[in-house]
Fold this sequence. Notes:
This protein is an all-alpha fold. The protein has 2 helices and no strands. The radius of gyration is 17 Å and the shape is elongated. The two termini are 24 Å apart.
Amino acid sequence: MRRILAGASLVAACALVAWLWWPLATELLQTGIPADIDDHRVSHHVWLTGFIFISAVFISLGIRNIGDRGGDS
């Protein structure tokens, strides 16, 4: 069950990133990708993408480690 929840959190992160970039993607494909300094929207999207993926990795690892604190020590 923990493996399913860990995988689901990563899938949810991918879906969130896809939803985040969808409105901006068509514009960027037509005009080209500007430097981060030129367009604040792109820099915010890049920052949010990194934050979402790093958070999802830590959440996934946390879910996988739930219950592994057993009484063996």
